[in-house]
Amino acid sequence: MRAILAQCTLACLLSLVDHTAMATDVATPPTQAVHTGERLTYDISWLNVLAGTAVMEVQPDGAGSRARLVTTAQSRPAISKFFPVDNRVESEFDLSAQLPQHMVFRRREGKNKEDIEYTFHHREGTVTAVRHGTTETLPIPAGTQDLISCLYYVRNQLPMKPGASLMLNVYHDKKNRQVQVHVENIETVEGVWGKAETAQVVVIMPFKGLFINKGDIRVWFTTDERRIPVRMKAKVIIGSIVADLVDGFSAKTSP
Q: Is residue 125 one of the residues assigned to a domain?
C-alpha cells in the first residue's frame, strides 16, 4: 500500500507573509475550526479493498493555547503481509499563532524505517532537524508549517468557496516546499455518518506524506464551521488510495 493520508492531507501547503497566508477570496475564513478533543477515524481503501485505518486526533497539550496533533496510519493484517505500514506523527501546534512548534514522525513503511524530529524557531526563522543521527539547523520562511499542521492550518484559514486558494510553505525532508491549495467546487458527500455539503479542495503536493503518494491530493471538507475532512484521495503507483471518515463526525470538542 503506497499512498498519503492527509494530511494535509491530510498532510498539507504554501508561501506566507508575516504569518498570514494569502487567500484569493474576500470572504472571512473561520477563526477556529479545530478544537481539542477531536478524534477522526478513517478507513483507507486501495483498489476498492480495505487496506488500513488512520486516526487523526487533537489532544490538549498543557497550555490552553496549544494542542498536540496526533495522526496514525496502520495497514490491515492482510496488507501488512506484503507491505506493512505503521506511521505516527505528533505535532505540537500553537492554536493562537497557527504555527507548529515541534514535530516527531515515526515512519514505518515496508522496509523503510526512520524517525524524524523537527523543532521550529519561528522568531529566528530556523528549524532544527534531527534525522539519521544528524542534527542540522536550517532556514525557514515566516509561517512555515509541518507535515501534519498544514492540514489544520488550511481548515482554519481557507474559505470553503469555489475559487478560494492558499499558498504556504511546508518544511519536510530538509527542504522548504511551496504547496498550493484551492477549492474546486461544492458537492454533497455521503458516508456512514450521513450526508454533508463539502468543498472539494485540491492540494498540489510536491513531496511524500504519511504514505508514498504519486501526485496531488483531493480533500473534501465540510462547509460548516468545523471544516471536517470527510474524504481524502491520492493517486499512487497503481490506482488511488481513498480515506473515508467512519467515526468522529458528531463528536463534541472543546472550544
A: yes
Nearest to 69 by CA among 19, 109, 35: 35
Tens of pLDDT, residues 49-77: 899 999 999 999 876 789 999 999 999 99
- Number of structural domains in the chain: 1
Task: Indicate whether 226 belongs to any domain.
Answer: yes
**3-state SS string over 35-47?**
CECCEEEEEEEEC
CA–CA separation, 222 vs 195, rounded Å? 10
pTM score over 0.70: yes
Q: 224, 30 in Cβ contact below 8 A?
A: no
Q: How many residues does the chain have?
A: 255
Is the pLDDT confidence value at 209 over 70?
no
Q: Cα–Cα distance between 3 and 211 in angstroms, integer?
A: 4
Cell numbers given for 117:
524530529
Instruction: Show the beta-strand stretches assigned E in 35-85.
Output: 39-46, 49-61, 63-75
What whole-number distance in Å separates Cα of residue 139 and Cα of residue 171?
10
Q: Is residue 134 part of a domain?
A: yes
Structural domain span for residue 62 = 39-247
